[in-house]
Write a structure and sequence with these properties.
The chain is an alpha+beta fold. The protein has 9 helices and 10 strands. The longest helix is centred in the first third of the chain and has 18 residues. It is globular.
Length: 303
């Protein structure tokens, strides 16, 4: 019997196999082949036997058991054939593979996952989705390799992170969120639409400096008027950057704002890079309080 493993441990064990088998050509991870072959090796009587697109109205992906009433065994993974950004497919597949490894006994009838399900971490229900996201992130973007592409002390441009997104065949948002996990820079990712913040995710150094935006349980948060993300009409190119003095985003902190607009949606990503941490650091006890405050506040993680 295979011992129970955490999502991170599952991803790590598979990564070790891929490093040995695929070597230099191991990225992006061929999730379909890996899911079928690995599940067959460890659970030969209950493996993943089918992975394909389908019409999933309102859902990104689905893990479903084979028809038990027909004497079938095994599992299938389905992803929405209407996903317009191809790089989102790979993460969706890895997410459902994570559900198979970690949660299928808990959900013997399968599980359907909307984009919102995959990005909410504020309940036990959402915790299950966050575990699948954690598995997918570690499988597709191992931190040792990611750090080799983008060192922790570099403040990257969208092109820099876009190169990583292409390497791992994930969305730009997923790649930025992965980078924020380990960077030593004080940076903040802000997603917005129609002049209002949808969600925001700080790096740990930014969180220690209290450079974060609370979006859950509060009225809509408007973008600063001078932010390029506030008015797409003033942006000539799809991407732009602007230096801000203190008082624009935060009262005492200036920053560089990199802005990227989506092609088909009224949606913008702002990546804010602040300066180095002030000498003397911050009150660690207060930092812990802020971390607990934000644990259920961030409205977006991987997808």
């Amino acid at each position: 019997m295979t011992r129970e493993r955490s999502p991170t441990r599952w991803a790590f064990d598979i990564t070790l196999v891929l490093n040995e088998v695929l070597k230099d050509g191991r990225f992006p991870v061929p999730v379909i082949d890996v899911a079928k072959e690995y599940s067959k090796q460890i659970y030969p009587d209950d493996a993943i036997t089918l992975i394909k697109p389908g019409r999933l109205d309102g859902f990104e992906g689905m893990l479903a058991p084979a028809p038990r009433d027909r004497g079938k065994t095994g599992w299938g993974i389905f992803y929405n054939d209407g996903i317009e950004v191809p790089s989102r497919v790979n993460f969706t597949l890895a997410h459902e593979f994570g559900h198979y490894l970690v949660h299928r006994k808990q959900f013997p009838d399968g599980r359907e996952c909307s984009q919102r399900d995959m990005t909410r971490w504020d309940s036990e229900y959402a915790k299950i989705e966050s575990e699948a996201n954690l598995f997918a992130a570690n499988l597709l973007m191992p931190l040792d390799d990611f750090r080799g592409q983008l060192p922790a002390d570099v403040a990257p441009t969208f092109d820099d992170i876009g190169a990583c997104a292409s390497r791992y065949d994930v969305s730009l948002t997923a790649a930025i969120l992965r980078w924020l996990e380990y960077t030593s820079k004080r940076s903040l990712l802000v997603a917005s639409t129609d002049g209002f913040v949808l969600w925001a995710k700080p790096s740990r150094p930014a969180l220690r400096s209290r450079l974060y935006i609370k979006t859950r349980g509060v009225p809509p948060v408007p973008l600063p008027e001078s932010s390029p993300a506030a008015d797409r009409a003033v942006v000539i190119d799809q991407t732009t950057s602007m230096a801000h003095a203190p008082g624009v985003w935060f009262p005492k902190e200036g920053c560089e704002e990199l802005v990227l607009f989506a092609d088909r949606f009224d949606f913008a990503l702002s990546l804010l890079h602040f300066g180095d941490e002030p000498r003397g650091g911050f009150d660690e006890e207060a930092d812990d309080d802020d971390a607990r405050l934000l644990a259920s506040d961030q409205g977006m993680r991987w997808k």
